[in-house]
Each structure stands twice: as C-alpha cells, then as structure tokens.
Amino acid sequence: MAKIVGGIGCSHVPAVGAASDFGKTKDSYWTPLFDALPKARKWINDLRPDVVILVYNDHASAFSLELIPTFAIGTADLFKPADEGYGPRDVPDVKGHSALAWHIAESCILDEFDLTIANHMDVDHGCTVPLTVFFDQPEEWPVKVIPLCVNVIQFPPPTANRCFNLGQAIQRAVESFPEDLRVVVAGTGGMSHQLQGERAGVVNTEFDLTYLDNLIDNNEVNRKMSHLEFIREAGSEGIEMVMWQIMRGSLDDQVEEKFRKYHVASSNTAFGIICLENKTV
C-alpha cells in the first residue's frame, strides 16, 4: 500500500528560484538560506519518496479571474513550467503520477471534497521553486509530482481548517492506493509577506516562528485561525499558509521535526521551511 512518509512546509518565493537559476546562491545575500538547504535535501533523499503531492497556489498562470477553482488536482502525466511573463524557468518538466492523482481525486470527491480535475495545467513558481529547494538543479526531478492548486488569490479562500480536513482526506486516499509508493506532502507559500498597499513589505517574525512551533504539537491554533487573523498578523499574502495545513492534516497527530530554517529577508518575504515525520510509537 502507498504510505505518506513525510511532510514539508516551504515558502515558494520566486526570487529563490531566480537566485538558483542565475548562479546567485553564493552571494552573501543568499548564502544564509542556501547554505542551510543541504540538510533538508539529505533528509528528503534519505526518505526515498516516489511521489510528492505539492500544494501551491497558481499566480494567474494556469487559471485567471475567469476560472477560480478552490482546489484543483493535476491528473496529467506531464506539467510544463509556465511562462510568467519573462519565459518559463529553465527547469525540468514536472512529471506527474496520473494513477495516484486520479485515485486521490476519486477518493476525495467521494469523501465529499469537490476537487477540480485538471488534465492539463502549466505550473508556475509556486510549484517549481519548492522543487528547486528540495532537489537543487537536477537534469530531471527525481520524483513524480502531483500538483494540488489552492485558491488563495481571490476572496473567499478556503479556511485553514478546511485545508487541514482535506489533508486528512488525502491521507486516507493515499493509504488506500494499492501500489507500494512512498509519498511526501508539501504545503507551500508564505510565510508572512504583503506585496501591495500601505503594509507592503511587512514581515512578522514572531508570528512566523510561533506558527512553525505550533505545527509540531499545538496545530489546533493554526488550523482554527481565521482569514482576518492571517491577514492582520502575516500580511495579505500570509493567507498562503493555509496550504501548509493540507500537509499537516495528511500526517498523524504526533509528529517529529527533522529540519527547520527560517530566513529574513528573501526578496521582501520571510522564508520558512520545516520537515516533519510521523512520530513512531
């Protein structure tokens, strides 16, 4: 049977992808972040995942204000990097796992989560930047990826609690898939940041660090947080952190932290990554 072997919360800051793409990772601005990543990459490599379910938000690449699915799952075998206005990133194509994706779609829909099924979907930096964080610059990504897109752009986005419950449904779906697969669930976006308005550039380190701490043994606080609380404490784009709750919901109640890095600033954003495993009894 398939098994979820780990969960990752990770920012998807576009400038992190650009730093990797253009050879800036050894610049003094970026070394505090990139010098820390080999430990996370070793943890992921040692887990030997076959598939990553990557939860992210589209940035008007595959979708627009004409079509706004709350949750959309990519069921194709291949996803191309999106052109976000300056050409696609020069990174490998994202190879999907159609059989598992369709199984998750069917299981979750019958579990009363109405996922939009995307048989074609280009993936933007929200998906490809975390893959760079996890796997650096390989000739091809070493895992298959199921992209799960969440609307956190147009009000109303799903609540953190709804996302957590979807993560639980995904755990049930994965564990009922008959093939032997090792699966990692990654929730991306955040941490605190705002890109416009009077609070543009806001970073709330205290909030971010508390959110990371609570993921371990007090996640009830995170999952019950309202939209207004996210926006007030973490900026308008801090709402992206509801996607981390899909990852957290896919794991057991008790988890162990295996890696953490928090860095300010990455562009005008707080960057966070945390790696979790279910606690063995």
Count of domain modules: 1
List low-pLDDT spans. none
- Look at the structure and give the CATH class: Alpha Beta
> What's the total number of strands?
10
Strand content: 15-25%
Q: Can you list the strand order of the major beta sheet?
A: 6-3-7-2-8-1-10-9
| Number of distinct helices | 10
What structural class should be given to the helix and strand makeup?
alpha/beta
Q: What is the chain-wise order of helices and strands? A: EHHHEEEEHEHEHEHHHHEE
Please name the fourth-level CATH homologous superfamily: LigB-like
Classify the helix fraction into a percent range.
Answer: 25-40%
Report the radius of gyration as a whole number of Å: 17 Å
CATH topology grouping:
Protocatechuate 4,5-dioxygenase, Chain B
Please give the CATH architecture: 3-Layer(aba) Sandwich
What topology emerges from the helices and strands here?
Elements: E1 3-10, H1 14-21, H2 31-34, H3 37-47, E2 51-56, E3 71-74, E4 78-79, E5 94-95, H4 98-110, E6 116-118, H5 125-135, E7 144-150, H6 160-175, E8 182-188, H7 205-217, H8 219-223, H9 227-234, H10 244-249, E9 255-266, E10 269-278
Parallel strand pairs: 1-8, 2-7, 2-8, 3-6
Antiparallel strand pairs: 1-10, 3-7, 4-5, 9-10
Helix pairs in contact: 1-5, 4-6
Give a verbal description of the structure:
There is one protein chain. By secondary structure, the chain is α/β, with parallel strands linked by helices. It has a single domain, classed as LigB-like (Protocatechuate 4,5-dioxygenase, Chain B, 3-Layer(aba) Sandwich). Helix content is 34%, strand content 22%. The chain has ten helices and ten strands. The chain has helices at residues 14-21, 31-34, 37-47, 98-110, 125-135, 160-175, 205-217, 219-223, 227-234, 244-249, and strands at 3-10, 51-56, 71-74, 78-79, 94-95, 116-118, 144-150, 182-188, 255-266, 269-278. It has an eight-stranded mixed beta sheet, with helices on both faces. Strands 4-5 form a two-stranded antiparallel sheet. The longest helix has 16 residues, at 160-175. The chain starts with a strand and ends with a strand. The mean pLDDT is 96.
